[in-house]
Amino acid sequence: MNEQAFRERECIHRAAGVEGEYYRGDAYIKHLMRLRSKEAHSFAGKVTSFFWADAPQIIVWLCGDCASELGLREREASLV
Q1: pLDDT tens digits, residue range 9-33?
Q2: Can you give the three-state secondary structure of 6-68, one letter per residue?
Q3: Phi then psi for 43, rounded to 5 degrees?
Q4: How many Cβ atoms are within 10 Å of 51's Cβ, its own excluded?
């Protein structure tokens, strides 16, 4: 069985017990790059950091509000 290992990152709201979903790291980066630099910097501060080059091996857990703010509610970006 060929199983790929993923590393997990999350938004700051996960500790509060809110509901959320996992998203591909490369989809997260793609949507983050669509924001203006000040907004992108502010939003990135809400998520555990990682090197962008590692994005294909990263999954990012985002609460519903953060996913909506980033525009990641698209079905193809979600791992579910």
Answers
A1: 999 999 999 999 999 999 999 999 9
A2: CEEEEECCHHHCCCEEEEEHHHHHHHHCCCCHHHHHHHHCCECCCCHHHHHHEEEEEEHHHHH
A3: -65, -45
A4: 8
With contact defined as beta carbons under 8 Å apart, do 54 and 5 qualify?
no
Q: How many CB atoms are closer than 10 A to CB 7?
A: 12
Structure token digits, residue 52: 């962008």
Which tokens go with 80?
């579910």
Predicted pLDDT of residue 2: 40
1: helix, strand or coil: coil
Token pair 């791992």 in the structure block, residue: 79
**For residue 35, what are its two tokens?**
């924001």
